[in-house]
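Lecture notes, part 5. Sequence design as translation. It can be helpful to think of inverse folding as translation between two languages: the language of shapes and the language of residues. The source text, in structure tokens, appears below.
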């Protein structure tokens, strides 16, 4: 019957089927390998370094971190000035007082006494500054004393515990222009000094409206009254 139809049928053998299977398997393996190498390429790795927060950084010596701690400068202190032997008498080395006053024809006179209470001798030369003060607070009353430039003004050395003198004259006043005021005493600036002494004279009155004081230069002895 096969021959009648003119057709030839070729049947596969087991060996043929095995070879075909191997060929297909090899082809599939190659295809899979190609897909894997194409779709799974690994990207190069990148290392990222994270900087620490500013608060945890350690400053390099000589570099600023933006903050600093200031070291307070030592407070300057002014040492107490002590009297030097033979130098000009400091106000702090002197105490002041008045001799008994004398008066005649409306004029009063007395001596200002400056005593050296330091342990060394010191000197004074020239005229002291003198003015009345009152109101219980050192307020000046009237003009300062006029300096008698005609008086001798040699340098006077005051030994430790010794004194020097300045003659003071208080002239009479015109009641209409005097403006009489209760005084507490005198403010006295020793020659060459910017600090003053206070000499009490609580029973005195002063003219606030005119000048009534005249003072001589420092002398080694009190002037006769």
């Amino acid at each position: 019957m096969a021959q009648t139809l003119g057709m030839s049928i070729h049947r596969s053998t087991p060996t043929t089927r095995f070879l075909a299977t191997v060929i297909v398997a090899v082809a599939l393996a190659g295809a899979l390998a190609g897909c894997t190498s194409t779709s799974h390429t690994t990207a190069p790795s990148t290392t990222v370094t994270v900087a620490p927060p500013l608060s945890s950084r350690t400053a390099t010596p000589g570099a600023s971190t933006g903050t600093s701690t200031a070291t307070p400068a030592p407070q300057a202190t002014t040492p107490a000035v002590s009297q030097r032997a033979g130098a000009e008498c400091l106000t702090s080395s002197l105490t002041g007082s008045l001799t008994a006053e004398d008066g005649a024809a409306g004029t009063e006179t007395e001596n200002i006494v400056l005593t050296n209470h330091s342990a060394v001798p010191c000197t004074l030369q020239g005229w002291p500054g003198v003015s009345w003060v009152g109101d219980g607070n050192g307020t000046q009353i009237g003009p300062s004393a006029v300096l008698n430039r005609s008086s001798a003004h040699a340098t006077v050395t005051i030994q430790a515990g010794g004194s020097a003198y300045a003659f003071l004259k208080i002239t009479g006043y015109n009641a209409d222009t005097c403006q009489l005021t209760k005084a507490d005493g005198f403010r006295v600036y020793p020659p060459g000094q910017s600090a003053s002494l206070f000499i009490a004279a609580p029973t005195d009155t002063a003219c606030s409206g005119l000048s009534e004081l005249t003072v001589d230069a420092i002398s080694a002895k009190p002037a006769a009254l």
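The translated text above is only one of many valid answers, since several sequences can fold into similar shapes. The CA atoms of residues 185 and 201 lie 4 Å apart.
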